[in-house]
Amino acid sequence: MILLTASQRAQLLANGRQADTDHIPVVKFFNPFGAGVWLATELDEDGDIMFGLADIGYPELGSWSLNELRSIRLPFGMRIERDLLFTGDFPISVWAEAARETGSIRDAERLLYRSGRLPGGTRPDTEPTSS
Fold first, then answer.
1. Superkingdom, according to UniProt (predicted)?
2. Under a CB-based contact definition with an 8 Å cutoff, are residues 9 and 43 in contact?
3. DSSP state of 79
């Protein structure tokens, strides 16, 4: 599987040029056999170092190597995969807060999408509106 499409690579590189911005994740990588989920928001100009939210036992913001992800060999000839259906929808700060609250990116995804709740227990449809 191709880990990055040309359009994803272009968006990640563009995000990497914008410092101090709360980007929406562009791509989600995962280990189909267990622990390991990565939400990437940025790619350095070198084309290797990514930034985002990584969870290999505990979710934290940081950097990792795309080439190292590509080199991981799993049982049955499998490798790290890209979630083809992933849409970031929320800034990385929201993902990080939800992942810390729930303990993992996978649980944060359930919190954010399946329950319709945002971190802190608020529902998007109950946000206060100005009159």
1. Bacteria
2. yes
3. -
The contacts of residue 13 (CB under 8 Å, 6+ apart) are 43, 45, 47
pLDDT band at residue 129 under the 50/70/90 scheme = very low
CB neighbours (10 Å) of residue 9? 16
Spatial separation of the C-alpha atoms in residues 16 and 122, rounded to whole Å? 31
What does each C-alpha distance from 91 to 35, 39, 69, 74, 98 come to in angstroms? 23, 11, 23, 30, 11
- Helical (H) or strand (E) element with 14: helix 6-16
Mean pLDDT for 97-103 is 96
Count the Cβ atoms, other than its own, within 10 Å of residue 80: 22
